[in-house]
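Researcher: I'm comparing several assemblies side by side, and this is the next one on my list. It has 492 residues spread over two chains. Same procedure as the others: predict the full complex and return the structure.
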Amino acid sequence: MSGHVAQLTVPEPTGVGGWIVVKPEGEIDIATAHRLDAVLSDVVSRDPGRLFVDLSGVVFMDSTGLRSLIRTRKQLDRTNAEMAVMPGSDLIRRLIEVAGLAELLSMTDSLPEASG
Amino acid sequence: MSPSEAGQLAGLIDKLARVSPPRLAGVIAEHLHRPGIDRVTTWVVDLGARRLTDLAEERGHRLFDGYLAQTVLRGESTPLTGATLIPLAGRGQVVGALEVEGPASGSHLSELEVAGQVIAEALLASRGHSDLYEVARGAHLLSLPATIQHNLLPLPSFVDDEVEVGGRMEPAYDIAGDAFDYAVNGDHVHIAIFDGVGHGLGATMLASVAMAAYRLGRRQGLELPDIAATLDEAIAIADPDVGFVTGILLRFDRRTRTLETCNAGHLSPFRFDATDVTPLDPSRRQPPLGLMTSRDRLIDRWPIEPGEMVVAYTDGVINARDNDRLMLHEQALMSIVDGARHQPVHLLCRAVLEKVLSHSAGPLDDDATIVVARFP
């Protein structure tokens, strides 16, 4: 394949105000989504209670990224854990809105205050 | 057609009906042989419509692009140096071309053109009992998911007095997860586009379930929201962990000239009228198929004026990134469509996806599908 290969880094999750924050940086597509999946699965397995996915460092995302988020949302449903997603760019906000997933993914512009 | 030509044609139909597939090419060449004709070759168009393969396996392959492909795919006979290419056109598609070396003109040419239609039908019919035509068009080079997908697709296009509809997918040999369908049923023209999330076999299985559930609901005469609810249930059963399919169901009523759309998490289609291009944005965004648990799917209704065209596509079309990692924007896509809008629908779809492929820095890493419906 010619051209550039997508890059994605997913640093260790951090704890902020009662939320576990996952902040991937780069491009989320078929070539890279497995890195995000690995970190999200690890977080889910530790029963996070509240998961915040900050996509402000993501410059490109396609439906592969939505798949990772939906799978995580469904897994967290089993323990009634909270999950919120911050899109960062208009591109990703629009991706989530067009897919009709703004509500299901609790799309937000900032880290919500932890309820309860 | 003269009585002798009609007799010749009846003879060809009879021969093709009784010939075993390995002898098809030979029988065609023998039947069309005339004094002055040096050779007759039956070329088959490949699944990507970029290559011709000799059905008799004697002359190998030849490139099929540019002017040659344009005219043959338009169904027109094309003069070459010392030869003529005659399209094999059947059921709204060009499946190949006869190359007749030597002079072919006047009544002989029209006879060959009619023979081309008969041969196209014979090739399409042979798929029911032989792999030879499928292999000639490259079916052995498809990935496993693409083999499933190709078996699901309707004909590339259909045209009558009231509707022209067609679609195309890339990468032709490696598609996995996208699908489209249409059906012209009396007063209703049904069209759908689907994009199964994920990749490979998993995405293909989701798209297959979506296509089957869609066709079943449609054939049961259900209204669009109920067809969508059928899809929601089927996809949730097929993959309860993460499966979803974005898609749009469209239904055009020929009597009222109203288009109904049910958009499930998919990019809005665009409507082209005489002067403008506008997105058919749903009144409310709804989740993809498989993720909605209630049965109340919303539909929107759009009056369609004579001459308008609706174009639906999957995200692979605009997500193709160039060497600078830039996507093809919707506006760019729509101006490409606009530039090709007067072509027959199957050529329009081909022209658009050729541009997408040339925009992409490497091979497409996601399926790119376009579906076009024109309402004269």
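Model: For your comparison table: The CA atoms of residues 316 and 366 of chain B lie 5 Å apart.
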